[in-house]
Amino acid sequence: MDINDLFRAMRGRRQWTQGSGDNGEGWDDEGTSMPRIELPRVKKIWFAAGGLFVLFTIVLPWLASFMTDLYWFEAQGFESVFWRRFFARWELFFAALIPAFAVYALNWRVAWRRGARLFDEGYGESQARRLGRAVLAAAFVVALFNALSAMGMWTELLKFLNPEPFGETDPLFGIDIGFYVFSLPFVKFLQSWGQGVLMLALIGSGVIYFVTRSVSFEGGRLYVAPAARLHLTLLGALILALWGAGYWIARYELLFSPSGVVFGAGYTDVHVILPALTILAFAMFAAALFLCLNFFRPMWKLTAIVVGLLIVTGWAARSFVPGLIQQYRVKPNEFELEKTYLGYHLDYTRRAFGLNDVASVAFTPEAELTHQELEEDRETLQNIRLWDYSPLLRSYRQLQAIRTYYNFQDVYIDRYEIDGSSRQVMLGVRELDLSRLQNPTWVNTHLEFTHGYGVVMNPVNEIASGGLPFFFMKDIPVRSTVDIPLTWPEIYFGSASDSYVLVKTEVKEFDYPMGASNVRSDYEGDGGVSIGSMWRRLLFTLRFRDTEILFTGALTPESRVLYNRNVRRAFYEIAPFLIYDADTYPVLEEGRIKWMQDAFTWSERYPYSRPFDSGDGTLARFRGVNYLRNSVKAIADAYTGRMEFYAVDASDPLIRSWMKIFPGLFKEKEEMPEEMWRHVRYPEDFFEVQTEVYTTYHMTDTNTYYNREDVWEVTPVGRERRIQPNYVTMKMWGEKSPEFAIIVPYMPLGRDNLIGWMAGRCDRKRYGELLVYQFPKQKLIYGPGQVEALIDQNPEISAQLSLWSQRGSDVIRGDLLVVPIGKSLLYVQPLYLKAEKGELPELKRVIVSTGGRVAWDEDFGGALRRLMGEREAAPDGTEKEDKKSLRQSEISDDDIKGLARQAQSLYEAAQSALRNGDWASYGEAVKGLGEVLERMQGASE
After folding, report:
1. Which has the closest alpha carbon to 769: 380, 477, 360?
2. What is the reported pTM?
3. b/e map of 675-709 (b: 16 or more CB within 10 Å)?
4. Could you read off the pLDDT of 227-247 as tens digits, one per residue?
């Protein structure tokens, strides 16, 4: 039956009879002629259709993605990175493809020829050639899949070729840590890859020999032809040798053993499993040798006995013997036998997470704050954060989004020099949200609405009238009351969702709204990729699957396409081998908006270090990591998208290796602009990982660690969420000047009281240093949970909270901050009020506490006065003097300047309301102005 039979069967015909005419026609059972379809023509049609399908669904999209990626890397100045990554993958591909194909083809062809020769199957010459080609094709296909799977090891290949010493050795074998981080992973891959290739070659050869009956069962006995036996024996010997190499490599893997009380090699691993692996390795080598000896003198039985004994001995020593030793030898004497290895585990875990150089200070805080401490620590008081991220973000969106198509993705904390002193501020970037456009046409989303505009900034500790933020920078165009220049407020690259836009086109871009008309502009930068030529328009049409790019008449020879505009994703596209902090924060530098991104080098191959495993999943991308360093700071320009990577930790062997691999990617830290250094901060994710690890690994005594006698936690009892670290400007105990730092308190496991706190220093002189203050165990230091309980027990506060709730308002309690002041602790919690159906929270109260006492007021200064007034009040009339002293210590010249700015802002608001006839707003503004003037008068007394 040929293809005509198939067509006739599909039409329901019974059969047809081949015609005898020269025209090649056939006849059906009714004598009706039917034209034959030529099979070669059908094949050509199918091949052509298949080729077109592959061309348009695979080849052209791949080419478009490849070329546009290359253009983007070139525009960023990182084409060397692109090609190094590209060639690393394909070098590994061909390094796997060629040997695998050679092994498969050689062995399977040999098996086919020997089998066919030994048992003459009577194949014709053409048929034999076709079968031979089929064997080669099968070998190529299997090798191809093998090579494709190997391409994913490109990072391990590059690290293997560019190792760096750690200068530290493991305690078991005395080998430099660099061997385990850079070399061992790729060596393991080579061993498993080689063994897998040989196993497939053996299986394929066995199948061929069986098909050709060179291997068969005759009379219930296995028969193997001599030629097939020698061939399969050689393959088996090579497999056993690589198997033995795998056991030898597994000896080093004991340093990552998760069993027992130690992560890494423990007593049983060292005294039982390590010798067992050694025995198994030599057993496999011996087995391979005995198999090879059978080429010269057959002794199959002796070989089987010797090899079997060695394998059984090694298997027994690795399987049930360790369990017996662990149960009956180690467990009854666990601490004594594991003590040495516990010491290794503690030491190497602290080293891996950068905790070996933590400065730990035993300290006993005073019971209560004093006026002297307040006087000496005014800058800390001035920078206490009253605005929580979530309520402030809502306020930004309600007050400063201006239009529906603008949005704030997040709010960020930083410090700037304002009026000669360092001030902590919160700021947000007004980015474009295309999903909120009222008319999302192609022109609007890709040509006209191309960028966000401006920033909003407020001090962390100031409150405007009505419990709203007091803005340093606001509105469109940006209005500023501080000396921070912003000459390029457009945001083309940011943290919002990614989409491409076309700039320098015939269509004027929307810049910002202004009255009845809008202000329009043209892009003046050199960011993105040129799209002026037809070839590039075609490529980007395929990349974005958008034919409008090809047919629009708005493009000019100077037009550019901006894509990969989410800066965090863009950083990852350049350097996917790094882990990135979740927070990409903006910095205002020389009139431009820059994005700062922290990135981390990491490994899972640091001996004896326990892998990180965050219980709540908030740091899931670090799970399994057992070595971590904050070695990279990346910067991106919000206008041009230009990216720079700086290696800031030259002591890290991993970043030194990556710098060798990609010499054009990283710059030295000395090349980072000084202004950007002023805004560098200790990354929050890295700090959270370290603080989590330190809860257990602050214990240096093996007995204390074994008994878990002194475990800490950062999650208060009864809560699911851990305390978030806070950036503060504070004076460390014993230091003369304040500094910017990130801090978090510690509590004993299962208890509410404080046991200490950790600080990560952010200022350049001491950047990256960790400081821990340990409090005495025998003295009660109030923890966050206990202070919140004191707040709930305060009659005035609880009554007012109940009243607000009954009136339908949502009470939002902000983060409770634990702020060191002098030698004491001050607890601060902002309290917000939001209408039940509203979205604008107002900061209504500030709660403060020290020494077990609680006070609150409408602002921080009032609450602090009440707190300290309660402590100092006395019948002899000293209360007034104390309050006066407190005002003088609390309100600095910078505060008076801030109040003056508030007064000016309220005056302008009152005048505007008066002109518009808005008497309600006018009354509010005048009332707020009066309150500010009263505070200024009190400050001057």
Report:
1. 360
2. 0.85
3. ebbbbbbbbbbbbbbbbbbbbbbbbeebeebbeee
4. 888 898 899 899 999 999 999
